[in-house]
Amino acid sequence: MARDTTDFRPIEGVDELVDHLAEGNKPRDKWRIGTEHEKFPFYVDGNAPVPYGGERGIRAILEGMQSKLGWDPIIDDGRIIGLVEPTGQGAISLEPGGQFELSGAPLETIHQTCREGNAHLAQVREIAEPMGIRFLGLGGSPKWSLAETPKMPKSRYEIMTRYMPKVGTKGLDMMYRTCTIQVNLDFESEADMRRKMQVSLKLQPLSTALFANSPFTESRPNGLQSWRGDIWRDTDNQRSGLLEFCFSPDFGFADYVEWALDVPMYFVIRDGRYHDMTHITFRQFMAGAARNDVPDGLPTMGDWANHLSTLFPDVRLKRFLEMRGADGGPWRRICALPAFWVGLLYDEAALDAAEALTSSWTYKEVLAMRNAVPEFGIAAPFRNATLREIARDVLAISRTGLKNRGKKNRDGYDETSFLNTLDEVVARGTTSAEEMLSAYHTRWGGSIEPVFMEYAY
C-alpha cells in the first residue's frame, strides 16, 4: 500500500465497517486485475544493498522516477517515500528494507498487466543503471544480514520494527528481507467473495510451492525452497496465516470484521503524525481506549482502512481480495501470478471446477500443506498425492478459465500463454528454488553471487 488513507468520517458502529467491505461488490464487467511486485535493489559493484540516501540511493531513484513519470510524490516527515499516479492508477512504494514495489493500475487483461510490468522495469532500469544499480527478483534476500539491510525512513515501519519482535520470531525478516508478487481481484457479492476466499485460501499453499524462489539466506542454502513461506509461519500469528473461520459455509463480511476488530492496531495518523497504537485492538479503540493517546481519540473510516491494510492473512479481504502466497521472482512470474488466479476465479466454470476440487479439503489438511510447502515445494504431500499432481489439475482449470475469458492481444493470442512458466515447473518436477540450488552446487561453484546476474532485472 503506497499511501496510508486519510478519511475523517467518524465511525458510528460496526455495521459501517461491514458496509465498507461490501462497497467492494462490483458487477462482472467492472472486475479488474491489480498486480503488485517487489524487487531488491543492489549495487552491481559488489552486490551490496542500496541505502535510502546519497547520490546513488533509493531516494535518488524515486526522484528520477518522479521526473520521468510526472507522478505525485508521497512524503513522510519531509522525505519522499513513494510516488502515485495522479488519478490513482498505480503507485511506487518502498518496503522496509528498500524493496522497490510497483502497485499496478486496475487493468482488464493479463496482456495489459504484462505490458505494465515490462514498462515499469524498463523505466526503473533507465534511472537506476547509470547509478550502477539493478534489481533482484527473488522471494528472499540471498546475501545480506538484517544488520546489513538498509532501513527506509517510513513512519509506519518504525512502529512495526519495534512491535514485531514482541509477537513472533521472524517479523523483521518478513519486513526487511522478503519480496512478493501479489494480485488483487474483485468480487460481485458476499457469496462470490466467500467462494473466491475459500478456494484461494485452500490453494494459496500451492501458489507458494509453484513460485518457491527463496532458498538462500546470508550467502548459504537455508534448507528451504520458500524461506519467505517459512517466515510467514511465525511473523505475527494474530494477524496473519490461514484463517479457519473463513472455511465456514456461511462466512461473510461481518465475520472478517469481527476478527479484524480484535487484532492489535499498528498506528493512526493525526495531523500528518503517526501515533503508535500497538497496545490496543480496533475494538478497544472504538470503545474509547485511545482518548489519552491521540487528539480526540475517536476512530475514523481512514483508521479502519489503514487497519485492514496491516492485516496479513494468506488471502486479505479489503474491498477486493489480495492473493498473498507467492515469492517474488523473475519478470515472467510477474505475469504468471495474476494469470494463475484470474484463470481460476474470474470464469464461472473454472471457479466451479476449482471449488469442486477443493470442497472436501479441511482446514487442518490445508494447514499441514502450508507447513510442508516451504521445505518440500511441489513435492509436499497432500492426501495420497503430491502438490505436483494437484498442480496439474489446478493449472488445467486455470488454463480453461483464461481460454473461456477470450481476452486476446493484438496478435490474436489469449492469456493462457502466461501460465507456461508454471507448466514448466510441473513438467520438470522442480521449482525455481531447486534449480538455483542445483546451480549453486554445480556451475556456481558453491557461491550465491551468480544469482545477482541470472535473476536480475
Describe the structure.
With 457 residues, the protein is of the alpha+beta class. The chain is built from 17 helices and 18 strands. The chain has helices spanning 14-22, 58-69, 110-128, 155-167, 171-177, 190-210, 227-231, 253-261, 282-286, 301-309, 331-345, 348-358, 363-376, 387-405, 420-428, 432-441, 451-454, and strands at 33-43, 48-49, 72-76, 79-84, 91-94, 100-103, 133-136, 180-185, 216-217, 220-221, 240-241, 267-270, 273-276, 312-313, 315-317, 321-327, 381-382, 385-386. The strands form 5 sheets. Strands 1, 2, 3, 4, 5, 6, 7, 8, 15 and 16 form a 10-stranded antiparallel β-sheet that branches. The protein has a two-stranded antiparallel ribbon with strand order 9-10. Strands 11-14 form a two-stranded parallel sheet. Strand 9 and strand 10 (220-221) form a beta hairpin. Helix 2 (58-69) crosses helix 3 (110-128), helix 6 crosses helix 12 (348-358) and helix 6 packs parallel to helix 13. The two termini are 22 Å apart. The relative contact order is 0.15. The mean pLDDT is 97.
